[in-house]
Amino acid sequence: MRVVLAEDLFLLRDGLVRTLQEHGCEVIAVDNGPSLLRALLDDGDAAPDVAVVDVRLPPTFTDEGLQAALEARRRRPGLPVLILSQYVEQLYANELLAGGEGAVGYLLKDRVTHTEQFIDAVRRVAAGGTVMDPQVISRLLLRSDARGTIGSLTQRERDVLELMAEGRSNAAIAAGLHISESAVAKHTASIFTKLRISPSADDNRRVLAVLAYLKR
């Protein structure tokens, strides 16, 4: 798997490169927005399978990395992108998910210290899945709950919803909550009914539908 990594902090970039290489990835590392965009649009032998992108990159140190990734996805629809951020930024999550194509992720930088979790996120996004940091999901849930949109959900349904929105399969949710897959399916059906979301057999579309609803 070929990974384009965009991170301007040398020590963090070097650590991520080593981690990715140790797990069989070929890494192309860049440290600024223009270089990132060029790497993501490469149509040759160095074309990426997935991008891991810091939101804030030179030259502006605002949202240069995110904007370069979004521009690359506009030119190459479906390009897998995993965004790294220091903070939970609602706007960044909204922009990343706006297209609805999937193959996207949003992780806080703290997560990259958990190697297996980070590598799993990279692989899931590369495979077309959606990965959202639990803290981002919690923030979305809190905002929605304040407006009364999920107040009808039971605590167990909220637990299922959080894991669902992280991109977890029914089997993974069942294992995490120590319940059966059939119980997860029943909770999921109840969630869709209460939130008025049309059920879907496609896990990625299911996650995007839930997140889109919670952002309203």
TrEMBL record:
The modification 4-aspartylphosphate is found at residue 54. Residues 146-216 form the HTH luxR-type domain. InterPro entries: CheY-like_superfamily, NreC/VraR/RcsB-like_REC, Sig_transdc_resp-reg_C-effctor, Sig_transdc_resp-reg_receiver, Tscrpt_reg_LuxR_C, WalR-like. The keyword rRNA processing does not apply. One of its GO terms (biological process) is phosphorelay signal transduction system. Gene3D superfamilies: 3.40.50.2300. It holds the Pfam family GerE. SUPFAM superfamilies: C-terminal effector domain of the bipartite response regulators (SSF46894), CheY-like (SSF52172). This is Putative two-component response regulator. Residues 2-124 form the Response regulatory domain. One of its GO terms (molecular function) is DNA binding. Keywords: DNA-binding, Phosphoprotein, Transcription, Transcription regulation.
